[in-house]
Amino acid sequence: MTNGEPPRRAFARVRTAAVLGAVWLTLVGCTHSGTAVAQPRFDKVPADCTLALAPARTQITHFAGDLLEPDDDLVTDDDVERHDTALHVRCWEIFNGRGGGVPALDDTTLRRTSRDLQVRFIVFVADDAVADPVGEAKRTFDSHRRPGSTVTSGIGEAAYTTTQNTRPTWLIPGTVTGSVEIDILISNLIVEVDVSGINVYDMSDPAQISADLADHATTIATTIASNIDAAMA
After folding, report:
1. What is the pLDDT of residue 121?
2. 221 close to 181: Cβ distance less than 8 angstroms
3. Collapsed DSSP state (helix, strand, coil) of residue 186
C-alpha cells in the first residue's frame, strides 16, 4: 500500500500519468515539426544580368525581333524603386530599333515601335526582422498579387500572370499598348518578368497585343525558372 492506497490502484495511476506524458510529448513534437522553418535556397541576387539571363537569351532575342540592335544589352541596376529589406536587382532593356531610322510620316503600316523587358530578382534573407525568409517570400508574393491576375501553372513553385492593354486616343492613330507580368515564387526568391510593347497603326483588338506579349513572357519566365540555379550563380 502507498499512503493507504491499494498497490494496484497506485500502479494504475502512475501508468496513466506516464501515458498522458507520452501523448503530450508526441503532440509537442508534431507541433514543432509542423512549424519548422524551411531552408532558403538563395542568399544573394545576380551581380550581372547578362549572365543571369543568358539561359533565356534566345527567348529574349525572339521577343525583341526586328527591334533588336547590335549594341542592345541588358542593364543591371539595384532596383532603387524597392524599399523593403530584401535583396533585389533589376535587369532591363528597351528595344526600339532606332538605329534603323524613323519611318516617313506618311508610312501608316502597322508596326511595332517598342518592346520593353524588365526582370526583377528579389531574395529574402534572415536578419533581425526576418526569421523565416521562405515564409516571408511567400507572404510577400501573396500580398502583392494584383486584382485580376490569374494563376499560372508549371512555372516555379507558384506563379501568377497580370495582363493589361489600352488604346490611347491622343497618340498616333492605331496606337495600342500592352503589358504582361509573370510573378514567380521559388523558395525565398521572387522573380518578376515584365514585358510590354507599343504598336502603331494597329486596328486590331487591343487584346491581341497582350496575347502576343503573353506568349513571350511565358517562354522567358519558364526558361528562367527552369534554369534558376544558373541564373542565381
Report:
1. 96
2. no
3. strand
